[in-house]
Specification:
- Among the domains are: 8-25 and 53-280, P-loop containing nucleotide triphosphate hydrolases (Rossmann fold); 304-361, Arc Repressor Mutant, subunit A, CATH 1.10.10.10.
- It is built from 15 helices and 16 strands.
- It has helices spanning 8-15, 40-43, 47-53, 82-95, 119-133, 154-160, 188-205, 234-237, 304-311, 319-328, 333-346, 375-383, 390-403, 409-423, 441-446; strands at residues 60-62, 66-67, 71-76, 109-114, 142-146, 167-173, 208-214, 241-247, 253-260, 269-274, 277-280, 317-318, 350-354, 357-361, 434-436, 456-458.
- Strands 5-4-6-7-3-8-9-10-11 form a nine-stranded mixed sheet, with helices on both faces. A three-stranded antiparallel sheet has the order 12-14-13.
- Strand 6, helix 7 (188-205) and strand 7 (208-214) form a beta-alpha-beta unit.
């Protein structure tokens, strides 16, 4: 098959003439609206009709991964040589060679849509790979569309790509450069709408589409395959193959894993980077992911007797030390607390406080020494008793005064009542002459005056 790398003519046809030429309006060749568009009722068929209409699966493009008209994601960390990987895929499909020496491909034309690299960089990488893989560029069926520096999105592709149905595979690298305006990458609704547009392109061109995307920040080893990828989770649910690359603990090695819809499940495997190609690394263990914490061995159902024997001592163990030792042995914190409470209730574990620190032991803690019961000790204790502070003495005095009744209160109330009746609301007890108040109840009852009293009461008029 004779084919060439077509870039300039195809890009000019898609984007339009350069600014120096007379610009013509971009009117995509969309099909004319149908007079009687199909309704949902016409799309409903019986199960027998459905199986009769589709007796077999679609033809595979990448055996074991992707079929004709399906969508796929390839997710990897930033700057992890994703473009080199998909360029190998494009050359493999264009020549009908196995991809990565593992996946057989169906030979056909490939459309490479690159929105990240400059044309010079992309040409250099293609030339380098063709030299290493010993591929004749003149016989390479790849069409290239470079969109670096051009304002484009998936709606533009939907408008212009369906006119050509000669491609078997289309690669979009990277997807984030073709997002619709005001699209929120973290919105499931926006991401689902984006992949719906890609589905219409795949149906119109009858080509399989591979989207290159980046993963989110942080370690990815603990995540499920469908959770790897920056943005909303709809990106993994909307495609037929979600392929991810995660760093291996060995340098220049990546672990490939995937969730596939129309093929058997794929076991993880490893690739090794050897410039300028990725190669199978059969000697690497796919479970050795970088940054993956080893799982703790959980000891199921440890009993109280075994817990006391292993972690509690007769002379006492500090609470933090006991918890750390039991947890490192696989006993969860919740179970440690439950076993300690059970042991205290069963009197096989005793709690002891030493200098405001908590210890647990298997024997009862020693009792504190009793004070000596002698008169000298008692007298010494009496003599050594501290004098109450000034604040305590003041508080006690205030409490005593509050409990004592105010002797002049009844007379004051009577005086104020008389004064209000005679003088009106403006008069107060302050305007009345004062006379001494009695000191004891007997004198108060007789109406006499106390000689030693310094308090005065208002005189009645």
């Amino acid at each position: 098959m004779t084919a060439t790398l077509r870039t300039a003519d195809f890009a000019r046809d898609l984007i339009g003439p350069p600014p120096t030429q007379e610009a013509k309006p971009m009117t995509p060749d969309l099909p004319a609206p149908q007079a009687n568009p199909p309704t949902l009722d016409s799309q409903i068929v019986t199960a027998a009709q459905l199986m009769g209409k589709y007796p077999r699966l679609r033809e595979s493009v990448i055996d074991g991964l992707l079929r004709q008209g399906e969508l796929a994601n390839i997710i990897a960390p930033p700057k992890s040589r994703k473009t080199w990987l998909v360029l190998q895929l494009a050359i493999a499909v264009a020549t009908g060679a196995p991809w990565l020496g593992r996946f057989n491909t169906r030979q056909g034309r490939v459309l490479l849509i690159d929105a990240e690299l400059h044309g010079e960089t992309l040409a250099y990488r293609l030339r380098t790979l063709c030299n290493v893989l010993k591929v004749n560029v003149d016989e390479l069926g790849i069409d290239v569309l470079t969109l670096r520096g051009l304002a484009g999105d998936v709606n533009m592709l939907r408008a212009f790509l369906p006119r050509n149905k000669s491609w078997t595979l289309a690669i979009i690298d990277p997807l984030y450069r073709l997002l619709l305006p005001k699209t929120d990458e973290n919105s499931n609704a926006d991401v689902a709408a984006l992949y719906n547009i890609l589905d219409t392109i795949a149906s119109a061109t009858e080509a399989a589409i591979v989207c290159v995307h980046h993963q989110s920040k942080g370690q990815q080893g603990q995540k499920a395959v469908t959770d790897v990828g920056a943005g909303a989770g709809a990106q993994s649910r909307a495609v037929d193959a979600h392929v991810i690359l995660r760093p291996h603990e060995s340098p220049d090695v990546a672990v490939v894993d995937a969730v596939i819809r129309s093929f058997a499940p794929l076991e993880p495997f490893c690739l090794r980077w050897s410039y300028p190609t990725w190669e199978l690394a059969s000697d690497a263990d796919p479970s050795k992911l970088a940054g993956l914490k080893p799982a703790k061995s959980k000891e199921a159902g440890i009993g109280l007797t075994e817990f006391v024997r292993r972690f509690v001592a007769a002379d006492g163990v500090h609470r933090d030390r006991l918890t750390a030792a039991a947890n490192s042995a696989g006993v969860p914190h919740r179970e440690i607390r439950a076993l300690i409470a059970e042991g205290i209730e069963a009197e096989t574990i005793y709690k002891e406080k030493r200098d405001r620190q908590i210890f647990y032991r298997t024997t009862p803690p020693p009792l504190p020494p009793a004070p000596a019961d002698t008169d000298d000790a008692n007298s010494g204790a009496e003599l050594g008793r501290k004098r109450p502070s000034a604040r305590v003495a003041t508080s006690e005095a205030r409490a005593t005064r509050a409990r004592a009744p105010y002797r002049g209160a009844p007379e004051m109330r009577k005086t104020r009542s008389k004064m209000k009746r005679k003088s009106g609301a403006g008069a107060t007890a302050a305007h009345l002459p004062a006379e001494p108040l009695p000191d004891d109840k007997s004198e108060q009852g007789k109406g006499g005056e106390s000689a030693g009293s310094g308090r005065m009461r208002p005189a009645t008029q």
